[in-house]
Structure formats: C-alpha cells, structure tokens
Design a protein that fits this description.
CATH superfamily: P-loop containing nucleotide triphosphate hydrolases
Number of helices: 6
Helix content: 25-40%
Bound molecules: guanosine-5'-diphosphate, magnesium ion
Mean pLDDT: 82
Largest sheet: 7 strands, mixed
Number of domains: 1
Strand content: 15-25%
CATH architecture: 3-Layer(aba) Sandwich
Distance between the termini: 29 Å
CATH class: Alpha Beta
Order of helices and strands: EHEHEEHEHEHEH
Shape: globular
Length: about 220
C-alpha cells in the first residue's frame, strides 16, 4: 500500500485549493501598490471582463487587482444618457469608454491580466483589438437587466472565446432559479455560471477562478 507523502497535512487541516490567488487579495478597493510579478509567475493569461454599462466591471477589477488598476473613464454626459440606460445605476457618474486593466497572480504560476471591456454592440469596433490574445472572458450580468447582457454574450460568442457568467447581485435584484437565468441567456450547459458581488474581493476572485477552471477543463482532452 502506498504510504502518504511526507508533506501530507495532518488530519483535519484545510486542503489547499487547486486554484487560489498567490497572495491575499487586496482588502480595499483600488488594489495594493505591488507592481512586480511574483517569482512564481509562469503563464501570463489575458482575460476579458465584459458586460453592459453599470454591471460592475470596473468594481470587480478594482476589488481583485494586486496592482493599482488602470481605468479609462469619461464623464457620463447628457448625450450618453439616451444611450446608456441609467435604470438601477442612478448614482453612476462615469462610463467606461475603453478599458479597465488589472492583474491577479494565482498559486501555480498563472497571472491573469484583466481587461474590463465594454460589451455594448456600439463598441464592436474596439472589440477585436481588445479581445486579441485573450484566453477567456468573464461576462457580468445584472439580473435586473438581463437583456442588456445579450450584446456582450453575442460579442464573446462570435469571437469564439470560452467564457463564464457572473451574476452580479444588487440589493433590488429579484431571485431567479439558475435554470431560469440559463434559459434567458441561452447558455450552454457547460458554461459556468456563478453569483457574485463585484465589491467583494473573495466573491470576485471566485468568479474569476470559475472561469480559469473552465479554461483548464476545456484544455484537457476528453478520454477516448
Ligand atoms: N450593490 C452592488 N453594487 C454594485 C456591485 N457592483 C457594482 N456596483 C455599483 O454599481 C455601479 C456600477 O459599477 P461599475 O463597476 O462602474 O460598472 P461598469 O460600468 O460595468 O464598470 C457602481 O456604483 C458600483 O459601486 C454589486 O455587486 N453590488
Ligand atoms: Mg466601468
């Protein structure tokens, strides 16, 4: 009988998660001041974080980034009010016109470069450039405005990127069953779907890890 390896943890110890951030994620929004890649960095992975206006892309990247996140935001103008639906996001004063950028290092050597990307159809011209080289996408969905996610899902599917869906919860979100949302979004049964609060670091990390696990699963060939 094979004996347990000497590094085995004592009974009752928490098992090491297969996927986890390399260091404790920043506790405060805005990231910490670390800029250098950890020595463990082995694979650099580009990930898109997309979804409609006001769904929480900037918030999610802020909550997980180990570097000070980069944002290209512009003042929301009267002109854009007709285009960007403010329902449910009245307090929002800026809208992302290009990208957010952040970084998170995972145990095992993968470093995720996060590109927050507008998912509205009118940003299609930017899409191919921003998606270039990406391995996957996290599509954020606000269940109060499900139909506004269709553009982002369409752009991701057209580009052939594997993706996971994160339902960002707001206080007045109604609760739906997973099945109802999957049907509304017409999701493939294999597409991961998680609930998250983009303001919460651990919740946002978990949503990203669901995507990374999906990318890993897809890269492992099916047994014949
Ligand atoms: N209650 C709640 N508010 C959120 C959440 N995520 C984002 N927000 C708020 O929703 C607004 C829009 O978020 P933002 O990240 O700017 O959206 P973006 O346009 O997708 O980048 C901001 O005022 C956030 O503070 C969430 O999970 N829960
Ligand atoms: Mg934004």
């Amino acid at each position: 009988m094979a004996s347990a390896p000497s590094s085995a943890k004592p009974a009752g110890a928490e098992p090491e998660p297969a996927l986890a951030p390399a260091s404790a994620p920043p506790e405060s929004t805005g990231g910490n001041s670390s800029v250098h890649l950890p020595d463990t960095a082995r694979e650099l992975v580009k990930i898109l974080v997309t979804g409609p206006f006001g769904v929480g892309k900037t918030t999610l990247i802020d909550s997980v980034s180990e570097i000070r996140p980069l944002h290209t935001e512009e003042q929301l103008t009267e002109a854009s009010v007709a285009v960007d639906d403010l329902a449910g996001v009245r307090e929002k004063k800026t809208t992302t016109v290009a990208i957010d950028f952040g970084r998170i290092s995972l145990k095992g050597g993968a470093v995720l470069y996060l590109f927050g990307t507008p998912g509205q159809e009118r940003f299609r011209a930017l899409w191919d450039d921003i998606a270039y080289g990406a391995l996957g996408a996290l599509v954020l969905v606000d269940t109060r405005r499900i139909d506004e996610s269709f553009d982002a899902l369409g752009l991701v599917e057209e580009s052939g990127l594997p993706y996971a869906v994160a339902l960002n919860t707001f206080p007045d979100s109604r609760s739906y069953t997973e099945e109802q949302i999957r049907v509304s979004l017409d999701l493939d049964p294999d597409t991961p779907m998680v609930v998250c609060d983009a303001r919460d670091t651990h919740s946002s990390v978990d949503a990203l890890l669901a995507l990374v696990q999906h990318l890993i699963d897809r890269s492992i060939p099916e047994p014949r």
